[in-house]
Description:
single chain; globular; 27% helix; alpha+beta; 4 helices
Amino acid sequence: MVFRFKDPRFHLYDFADSFLVKCPSCHKCATVTTSNEEKVFNLFKKKTFVCNHCGRIEVNSNNHQLWLTANCKGNILWAYNLKHLEFIEDYVKAKLRESNKHEKLGWYNQGLFSRLPKWIKEKNNREAILKTIKKLKESINLELK
């Protein structure tokens, strides 16, 4: 059976309500959440940083490093959170990638599906990317223990 990926028409802002980041105090995985009442990518939304390891809490801090980053074939693979990482994983492992014409906009390339970097879309990088995604997922599981 061929694994299929059908474009869900997600945008980057669909994943921008929660970020896994590196705590500047203890260097473990922490979370930044945003108020996401509106489906708008807004860098000025209220952000709350919480580290469950050392107890650090900040409001409206913008300078945290993403936790889910790794070098992959000379490029940086990154994701905001597990949901974002799983979107990339589903796309990469699919042998068949489908997109339908939008009812009002026709064929458009504003969604995340069409905005992924070329190196992620290339078939010959599939195995390395999936291996890197597995390591990133494991890094989350280690932090939760």
